[in-house]
Amino acid sequence: MALSPIVSSKGTTWRGGLTMCLLTLFATLHINLFGQSVALTFLPVIGVCLWPRFSNPPASIVLLFIFGLLLDFLTFEPLGIRSLIYLIIFTVFRPDLRLKSFRFNMALAYWIGAILLSLILSYFLGWLGRSVKPEWTALLYQGLLAMALFPLIYGIRHIFKTLMKDVGLRGF
């Protein structure tokens, strides 16, 4: 008899929240690349894309909303823009409803879709929120940096998932 998502959801949502907390803190940083300061604000989108399977949807939505507001607050962006982006990505891709664990190729395909959607939403919501068109090259650099860091974060997640499985915790 297979476990339903409701039965399996025990303990997975907090791991998604912990991941988002760490990625949100790192998202406030800037990296100097070739004389340009590039923000890491798209890093938490990786956390949304890799959200744990069978997590509790209402709790997931609340956590994503809170971490979106937190990042907006910490980076002095209009409040609610990141929350809206995270919730749209969560709604479109529904990572909590995955039946199988991600393999890297499938995760990368989801990630590319999520980052493209995130870049498009950031541009138009930023334009709407500030009444000025955002500089598309800055968004592009931020997106490319997040894409470059995706394999590293996926690898860390994979190691953590393996450790959790060894300890007896599943669903991450």
Overview of this protein structure:
- This protein is mainly alpha-helical and 172 residues long.
- The chain has a single domain (13-163), classed as Arp2/3 complex 21 kDa subunit ARPC3 (Orthogonal Bundle).
- 67% of the residues lie in helices and 5% in strands.
- The chain is built from seven helices and two strands; from the N terminus they run H-H-E-E-H-H-H-H-H.
- It has a two-stranded antiparallel sheet.
- The protein is globular and about 50 Å long.
- The relative contact order is 0.15.
The general outline is: globular
* SSE succession: HHEEHHHHH
Question: What is the level 1 CATH name?
Answer: Mainly Alpha
Q: What would the CATH topology be? A: Arp2/3 complex 21 kDa subunit ARPC3
Largest sheet: 2 strands, antiparallel
How far apart lie the N and C ends? 21 Å
Number of domains: 1
CATH architecture: Orthogonal Bundle
Q: Report the β-strand fraction as a percent range.
A: under 5%
Radius of gyration: 16 Å
Q: What structural class do the secondary elements suggest?
A: mainly alpha
Number of helices: 7
Low-confidence regions: 1-8
On the 0-100 scale, what is the average pLDDT?
A: 86
Helix content: 55-70%
Widest sheet: strand order?
1-2
Q: How many individual β-strands? A: 2
Give the topology, please.
Elements: H1 5-8, H2 13-27, E1 30-33, E2 36-39, H3 43-49, H4 57-74, H5 81-93, H6 104-130, H7 136-167
Antiparallel strand pairs: 1-2
Helix pairs in contact: 2-3, 2-4, 3-5, 4-5, 5-6, 6-7
